[in-house]
Amino acid sequence: MGSEGSAAVAQPATTEVVRLEDVHKRFGDNHVLDGVDLTVDSQQVFVVIGPSGSGKSTLLRCINLLEPIQQGRIFFEGEEITRKGANASAIRQRIGIVFQQFNLFPHLKAIDNVTLAARRVKKMPRGKANERARELLGKVGLEEKAASFPHQLSGGQQQRVAIARALMMEPQLMLFDEVTSALDPELVGEVLVVMRDLAQSGMTMVVVTHEMQFAREVGDRLVFMDEGRIVEEGKPADVLSNPREERTRQFLRRSLQLAPLEDLSIEEGGNE
How far, in Å, CA of 85 to CA of 133, rounded? Predict the structure, then answer.
């Protein structure tokens, strides 16, 4: 038997977090998701791009069980969550989602927006919840804004509060649905920085975005969707620089936007 020093170190096996098998979703005659198959692994940043109406947002809403599917199966951490009798409420507590609109309660301070679900759903004591919320607000660069109401915050700051709120539930997976599309261009960077830092911390993420430089620099895997189908999949740099499919090339010619992510920063204590 070899010594400990010479023993090979076993590499951890890749853990599958999400798997979709032949997923179909229709709204009336509109076939929004048409046989989607995909797998998202642990700590992976999985990026979804495509034109408006291609099914990207519906894909996220189906993963989070906000929309039922008509055909196929969705698995989360090895459990089929689309099976009859699955506890959708319990599953959603483990899958955070951040939308285009911030959806903050206007009458609540930032810290109370962050803690509300944890206190009501998880029955977390207020003191413990406030302590954790301050940590999360600090993580998104907003600890000094804990007592501010949404109308006192910029759009970028409100979106960062929304991210902190989702993280408060300690999800195993984060879904981001075009979270910068409602922001003024000068506020986009601060939100992308928070998402980049979250990815670097090891959070598993599915990101629907039109920010192609973010996709290139932060994403591990990228799919291009059109008309409810996955047209192309691969490493972000490969798909964005050398797409195989003509439909992908058409889309990228119209939409590719490059803004170096390393130039983005969060102003400490600033009110943009």
Answer: 33
pTM of full prediction above 0.85: yes
Among residues 179, 242, 186, 191, which one has the least CA distance to residue 48? Answer: 179
For residue range 168-207, list pLDDT tens digits in order: 999 999 999 999 998 998 899 999 999 999 999 999 999 9
R_g of the chain computed on alpha carbons: 20
- State the SS3 of 143-183: HHHCCCCHHHCCHHHHHHHHHHHHHHCCCCEEEEECCCCCC
- Alpha carbon distances (Å) from 220 to 177, 216, 235: 17, 8, 6
For residues 199 and 215, the answer to whether their CB atoms sit within 8 Å is no
Q: How many CA atoms lie within 13 A of 9 on its CB side?
A: 3
Structural contact between residues 230 and 48, judged by C-beta atoms closer than 8 angstroms = no
Q: What is the pLDDT of residues 124-157, one digit of tens each?
A: 999 999 999 999 999 999 999 999 999 999 999 9
Number of H helices, E strands in the chain: 9, 10
Q: Give the Cα separation of 261 and 217 in Å (integer).
A: 8
